[in-house]
């Protein structure tokens, strides 16, 4: 049966659910009892160091790898039970799945043919990813950035409601990353489900609404980016010639809760956790303690991410 | 299934391997026609070419050269299937069609058709060159009935052989191993088996193909017993189906990583 492609109405995404997913390759537990869900209308970052099981999880979702336990479902169905999966899910798994002698247009037409779409669809998606000028060139001669764009084009051929992209920013220049961010945000705004994996949080920090963080095949944290940011408490560096007096002043509880951490980091310096700079300034002023510096440490999500995922050597495959 | 077949056909027409292997078929067929018309009589010590060329059976053999390039068709099927794994295009293929046996069936059907077309091209090459090279010499006439029989055999034989190639490629996913393995089988193992175990030859893939091609003298198996065309075709299809079924339950089920 041929199905029709409708270009006027954006396809709305469905939720992705991973339930107690496990995958073992020989003795290696690549993914262990992993559960999380991905909602439509949002961009979700799937984060973890190299070898943490991200790619294996994505391949399980897409029916390419058979889980040893649990399941990954797309709108309630496993991938191979979907009627026309290419019209529901678009995936870009790696930049290497091209025949080097096939042109970009040829590669996309192989896919559009299998989906029963008109030949013109290939040129439409090439236009969308900025490869229109290279449509007739062979993929074998493409740079990594161009291959990433071609992968993305292939994922978009069926105008699917769900996009699953494995490290899509790899090999893109800063301009390309900015472009990708805009594209993904736009797709999420249309109501699509967008799952993007990365091993660098800062790469996707400005793109994602939600994060799923895994390490060594297991879930570390899942939630909104704001929740993740909230986890890292505010830290303020204070310099004062009267260190001990300041410590005493900050510990006074009469005008609020005490700081959760007070680390003397030098003879005239303390690192305060759990109080805002204005709290500290006010208390120092009331106690008559002279301050030379009052600096909030940037709330560094990247180092928080590294802390969360630093649990020894990776145990899985990439 | 139609979109899938169109996609499989597109895969073949967007790369060069089909063109080059078809070219190889044409050149090899031409070489064999020339050998049979010009060189073989001299090599056989026949003083006058006409002695052989006036023999109707020998003229039939010249047309049978169309079937001599079957190995390229087998390799085409192998390269097409293993190429999916070599270039990892199997990932995007399976994303669109997650039921892997459907992919295998679609590719098998596509290469049945492609094999048939190459068979047609091989026959056209053979009959054109035979007509041109025999002109002006005294020779037995080309019998239309025999020619049509050879045409049918080459088209059917090449079609099934390409299909066998796809099945072999599904079972042995490493391209080099599959191509080299097939060559060793066809050129060495099967030839030796046929020589040492009389009755087995006609049941092996190459023997079954010879039955379909009805050209035993061309492939150097002169004198060996072959099956009927229908039985040969059935045996050859049987090999493809069995290899494909084994692949479906083993290699094609593996994780794509």
Map the helices and strands.
The complex is a heterodimer of chains A (318) and B (257).
Chain A: E1 16-25, E2 28-38, E3 43-47, H1 54-61, E4 69-74, H2 85-88, E5 89-92, H3 104-114, H4 120-128, H5 144-156, E6 162-166, H6 174-189, E7 193-198, H7 201-204, E8 210-215, E9 218-224, H8 225-231, E10 235-239, H9 243-251, E11 261-266, E12 269-273, H10 277-287, E13 293-296, H11 301-309
Parallel strand pairs in A: 3-7, 3-8, 5-6, 6-7
Antiparallel strand pairs in A: 1-2, 1-4, 8-9, 10-12, 10-13, 11-12
Chain B: H1 2-13, H2 17-43, H3 49-53, H4 56-64, H5 70-86, H6 90-96, H7 100-134, H8 144-171, H9 175-196, H10 205-213, H11 229-249
Q: If you had to describe this structure to a student in words, what would you say it looks like?
A:
The complex is a heterodimer of chains A (318) and B (257). Chain A is α/β, with parallel strands linked by helices and 318 residues long. Chain A is built from 11 helices and 13 strands. In chain A, the strands form 3 sheets. Chain A has a 6-stranded mixed beta sheet with strand order 5-6-7-3-8-9, sandwiched between helices. In chain A, a hairpin with a 2-residue loop joins strand 1 (16-25) and strand 2 (28-38). In chain A, helix 4 (120-128) packs across helix 5 and helix 9 crosses helix 10. The longest helix of chain A has 16 residues, at 174-189. Chain A is elongated. Chain B has 257 residues and is mostly helical. Chain B has helices spanning 2-13, 17-43, 49-53, 56-64, 70-86, 90-96, 100-134, 144-171, 175-196, 205-213, 229-249. Chain B has one domain (2-253). Chain B contains 11 helices and no strands. The longest helix of chain B is centred in the middle third of the chain and has 35 residues, at 100-134. The model of chain B is unreliable at 216-221 (pLDDT under 50). The chains are: A alpha/beta (318), B mainly alpha (257). Chains A and B meet through helix 1 and helix 3 of A and helix 1 and helix 6 of B.
């Amino acid at each position: 049966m041929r199905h029709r492609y409708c270009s006027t109405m954006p396809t709305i995404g469905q939720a992705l659910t991973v339930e107690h997913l496990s995958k073992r390759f020989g003795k290696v537990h690549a993914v262990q009892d992993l559960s999380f869900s991905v909602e439509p209308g949002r961009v979700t970052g799937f984060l973890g160091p190299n070898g943490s099981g991200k790619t294996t999880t994505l391949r399980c979702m897409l029916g390419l790898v058979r889980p040893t336990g649990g399941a990954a479902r797309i709108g309630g169905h496993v991938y191979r039970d979907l009627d026309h999966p290419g019209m529901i899910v678009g995936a870009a798994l790696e930049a290497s799945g091209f025949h080097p002698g096939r042109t970009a247009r040829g590669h996309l037409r192989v896919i559009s043919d299998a989906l029963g779409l008109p030949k013109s669809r290939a040129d439409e998606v090439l236009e969308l990813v900025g490869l229109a000028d290279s449509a007739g060139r062979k993929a074998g001669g493409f740079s990594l950035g161009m291959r990433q764009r071609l992968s993305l084009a292939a994922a978009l051929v069926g105008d699917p409601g769900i996009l699953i992209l494995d490290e899509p920013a790899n090999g893109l220049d800063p301009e390309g990353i900015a472009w990708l961010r805009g594209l993904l945000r736009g797709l999420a705004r249309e109501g699509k489900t967008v799952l993007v994996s990365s091993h660098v949080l800062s790469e996707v920090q400005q793109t994602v609404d939600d994060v799923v963080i895994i390490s060594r095949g297991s879930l570390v944290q899942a939630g909104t980016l704001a929740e993740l940011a909230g986890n890292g408490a505010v830290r303020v560096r204070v310099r004062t010639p009267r260190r001990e007096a300041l410590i005493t002043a900050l510990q006074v509880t009469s005008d609020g809760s005490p700081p959760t951490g007070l680390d003397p980091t030098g003879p005239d310096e303390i690192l305060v956790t759990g109080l805002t700079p204005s709290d500290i300034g006010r208390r120092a002023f009331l106690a008559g303690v002279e301050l030379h510096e009052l600096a909030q440490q940037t709330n560094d999500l990247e180092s928080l991410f590294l802390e969360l995922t630093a649990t020894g050597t990776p145990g899985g495959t990439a | 299934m139609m979109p899938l077949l169109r996609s499989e056909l597109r895969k073949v027409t967007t790369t060069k391997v089909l063109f080059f292997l078809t070219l190889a078929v044409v050149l090899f067929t031409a070489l064999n026609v020339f050998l049979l018309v010009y060189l073989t009589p001299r090599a056989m010590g026949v003083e006058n070419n006409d002695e052989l060329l006036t023999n109707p059976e020998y003229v039939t053999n010249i047309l049978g050269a169309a079937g001599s390039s079957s190995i390229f068709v087998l390799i085409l099927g192998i390269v097409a299937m293993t190429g999916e794994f070599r270039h990892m295009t199997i990932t995007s293929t399976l994303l669109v069609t997650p039921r892997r046996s459907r992919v295998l069936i679609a590719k098998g059907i596509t290469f049945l058709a492609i094999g048939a077309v190459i068979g047609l091209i091989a026959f056209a090459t053979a009959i054109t060159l035979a007509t041109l090279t025999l002109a002006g010499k005294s020779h037995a006439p080309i019998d239309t009935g025999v020619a049509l029989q050879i045409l049918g055999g080459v088209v059917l034989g090449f079609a099934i052989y390409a299909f066998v190639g796809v099945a072999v490629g599904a079972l042995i996913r490493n391209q080099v191993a599959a191509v080299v393995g097939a060559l060793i089988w066809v050129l060495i193992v099967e030839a030796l088996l046929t020589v040492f175990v009389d009755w087995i030859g006609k049941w092996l893939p190459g023997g079954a193909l010879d039955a379909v091609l009805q050209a035993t003298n061309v492939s150097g198996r002169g004198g060996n017993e072959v099956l009927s065309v229908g039985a040969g075709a059935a045996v050859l299809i049987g090999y493809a189906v069995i290899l494909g079924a084994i692949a479906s339950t083993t290699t094609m089920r593996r994780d794509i990583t």
